[in-house]
Design the sequence.
């Protein structure tokens, strides 16, 4: 998609929904010398980051959930799901996929999956009304009962609409109706700022996110966690249907299984600085406590949304009760003009990207460091000044 | 592949064939704040890096060679070739590939391509005798005349054997025998330290490399350049045969075409810090002059190889006249023991990875910063001390 080039300034306060601002610790970790990707130091760092990812998702080591960290943007998460879970032999009729769509990113996930489906299978979708995650339960049950679905995808937060899906509700319906179906979460704008507790909410099979969102690192990593039954499916049952190298998890999972045991293994050179920065960022997140971090994002988001709606009398793209907590999408008159004015005030916000309302709204990111030091208050003041002007 | 975990030290001198040491400028560029991936600053930086890549390969802007930079390891280069050039409809018999193999990495390229070939096509290979790039010319001509090859791949330097391919010779044979065949160069251990001048040596269609080799950046980028006829083939003739998103160049090439004109375009969030670091590193390389840089690598490599062979009386894996200039592979007794001793002297070298001779040799990287400040001399002294001991 062609986008407007924001007129930013290097001194500006970055308040887009990713890349987000880095903490000083993370930025310092990024600017370190290269080290051997098979040396003791890096091996220990990678192990540490992988173990922390298990903690982030609240799963015990012994439960066998396998975390992964791969050099790429978060977009590759869609390919990891398509290539490893949906690919099948041409005679297999069981590899259908169902996408629960809440915006631009769910739609892209849907299109990406289509290109991995065999002739005998379909990729279906259920689209929630704009700004909600109201998936009709009867329709969902009917669909899941109509044929065998290999997987269902849920975009936990769609970054295009700032809409949050209530996983507790949806996951239960899927599990009850079709327990063999893999439940896949696109957690790109949720992991690290929304509740995604795999220890508490059982049944989630695959989560991926990107490093530059609420994880608080620079862009360049796709990371996540995979349930034991999906690890087994990829490494055994489906291994011969998976194509290529880089998006092929039969290449990557043994690397993760090795590093998590503090043993180097080579498939492709890992981005040593980014993984070091990830490890530092995850340390900070776990030190703060995931529950507390999620609560703080919720509380700050609630404050901001309340001010926008009640004080500035603006309308949100997300309907009440469906708002994500790491970003806010706000309808405004002439978004391009407003972004320019706010930019002149030293704050970088993002434009709209949902095709139906692209030129009617702006997006404000409030993840990680940005909610800690008065940045969001500055955004509110700048919006107030420029909207009321 | 499971590898020995080197007992490195953060103060050690890193002399493996990638990741290589960073210059201070590049390291500083890496440790900078995140900025908007669609903002004026990043757009300008990305444009600048892309234009510099054209200069690195000595092609004029107007000739239409399209550079690309993607967040991933260099390994993804194989998938970019497989998915975009080799994929075809099942009835197409013209999508055969020929791999010219000089070691472990050529072999991996071969295996990766196989997984993209349709039922009607084959991936063939010609293997040069170990330590040489002696491809039998008659065999090459016979193969190329026997059926229609969509592409031939050449691993310019195979990092497993430190063997260099004489491109002038091979490219001419391919062009003369089968001019419609795309010539693909795996330049992972060559771009930035070996001569690869697309302005002088006409006929090369696709080159890729990784950021952590002679380009002098941290790991995390796959980058390269594509000829106009291959850009056209991907975006038009073959577009419907290319699967998925992340390794699908119909998604990426329009992004590169846009940024090179200083216009942001979104497909996946680019790694802003890594691209900033790339831009800084390319500035340094172009300032030095590519020809001069290649000569300096050659001269330092010749000096080192001469000392190893004539003073230390050790044997190289590469046969005389076939040695790469960014690394040296040396047969030694008990490599694991030697690497440990050298490690204790504060230098990190790499072990062998070619399956036939895996436990018989070591590898020394000498790319970029490492050849400028006496590091290779230190390696020689350490080898001398520990080999003669």
Sequence:
């Amino acid at each position: 998609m062609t986008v407007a080039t924001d007129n930013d300034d290097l001194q500006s306060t970055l308040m887009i929904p990713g890349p987000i601002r880095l903490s000083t610790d993370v930025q310092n970790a990024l600017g370190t010398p290269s080290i051997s990707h098979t040396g003791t130091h890096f091996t220990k760092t990678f192990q540490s980051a992988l173990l922390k990812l298990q903690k982030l998702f609240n799963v015990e080591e012994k439960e066998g959930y396998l975390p992964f960290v791969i050099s790429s943007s978060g977009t590759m998460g869609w390919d990891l799901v398509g290539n490893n879970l949906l690919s099948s032999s041409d005679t297999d009729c069981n590899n259908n996929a169902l996408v629960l769509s809440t915006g631009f990113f769910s739609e892209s996930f849907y299109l990406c999956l289509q290109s991995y489906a065999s002739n005998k299978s379909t990729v279906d979708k259920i689209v929630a009304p704009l700004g909600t995650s109201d998936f009709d339960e009867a329709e969902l049950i009917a669909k899941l009962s109509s044929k065998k679905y290999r997987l269902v995808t849920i975009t936990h937060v769609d970054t295009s609409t700032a809409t949050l899906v209530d996983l507790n509700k949806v996951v239960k319906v899927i599990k009850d109706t079709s327990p063999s179906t893999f439940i896949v979460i696109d957690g790109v704008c949720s992991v690290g700022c929304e509740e995604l507790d795999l220890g508490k909410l059982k049944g989630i099979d695959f989560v991926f996110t990107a490093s530059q969102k609420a994880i608080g690192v620079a862009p360049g990593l796709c990371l996540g966690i995979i349930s034991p039954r999906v690890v087994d499916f990829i490494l055994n049952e489906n291994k011969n249907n998976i194509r290529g190298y880089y998006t092929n998890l039969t290449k990557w999972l043994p690397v993760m299984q090795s590093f998590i045991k503090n043993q180097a293994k080579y498939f492709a050179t890992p981005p040593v600085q980014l993984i070091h920065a990830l490890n530092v960022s995850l340390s900070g997140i776990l030190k703060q406590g995931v529950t507390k971090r999620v609560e703080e994002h919720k509380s700050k988001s609630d404050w901001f949304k309340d001010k926008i709606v009640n004080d500035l009398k603006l309308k949100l793209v997300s309907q009440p009760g469906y708002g994500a907590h790491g970003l806010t999408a706000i309808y405004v008159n002439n978004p391009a003009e407003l972004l320019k004015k706010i930019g002149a005030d030293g704050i970088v916000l993002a434009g709209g990207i949902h095709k139906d309302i692209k030129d009617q709204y702006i997006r404000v990111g409030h993840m990680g460091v940005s909610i800690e030091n008065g940045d969001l208050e500055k955004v509110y003041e700048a919006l107030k000044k420029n909207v009321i002007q």
Notes: Residues 13-17+290-388 of chain A form a domain with the Aspartate Aminotransferase, domain 1 fold (CATH 3.90.1150.10). Chain A touches chain B through 75 residues (CB under 8 Å). The longest strand of chain A covers residues 149-155. The mean pLDDT of chain A is 95.
